[in-house]
Amino acid sequence: MKRRILLTVIVLLGIFATWNIIWLIYVNVKFEKYMEAVPKNDLGAHILEKDGYVFNVKKPEYLSFTGNLGVSKLNSLDGLIIWPLLFGGYEYGLRLQTEEGVLEITVDDNKELLQSKMNKTTYDKYKEDIEKLFAIAEEVWDLP
Questions:
Q1: For residues 113 and 120, is the Cβ–Cβ distance under 8 A?
Q2: What is the pLDDT of residues 44-94, one digit of tens each?
Q3: CA 118 vs CA 62, 122, 123: distances in Å
């Protein structure tokens, strides 16, 4: 009985250690290039102000695989959030300041509207601003 409990504890500790190692490698490898492009500021956060935009990198929290990249206009609520996916690719979210207020939307890799309270006509009206946010993010982080 004691052997069985000991074996169970060893297996669980092994699984936990493996999960920690995988997480550590993922965070350091996956987010390294993003953090190099946006170095730490005086407070230790990866935030950079450049050409009227603010760029930030948020590494995944301990044992989580979800981190993000952010680009926002300095004097606006407009912004782009990019979630690097575990096995490649990205998910994208936008916050846009419109006449109706601030709207949050999600778009696909082709910058097409996925889900939101925003209709296609309003989205098309802000398409140029959206393209600019994507272009700046792609330039800073060398995104595909």
A1: yes
A2: 899 999 999 999 999 999 999 999 999 999 988 899 999 999 888 899 999
A3: 34, 6, 6
How far is 19 from 61, CA to CA, in rounded Å? 14
Handedness of CA 118, 77, 52, 82 (dihedral sign): negative
pTM of the full structure: 0.85
Contacts of 133 (CB under 8 A, 6+ apart): 71, 78, 79, 80, 94
Contact 78, 96 (CB under 8 A): yes
State the virtual CA torsion across 85, 34, 114, 125 in degrees, nearest 10. -170
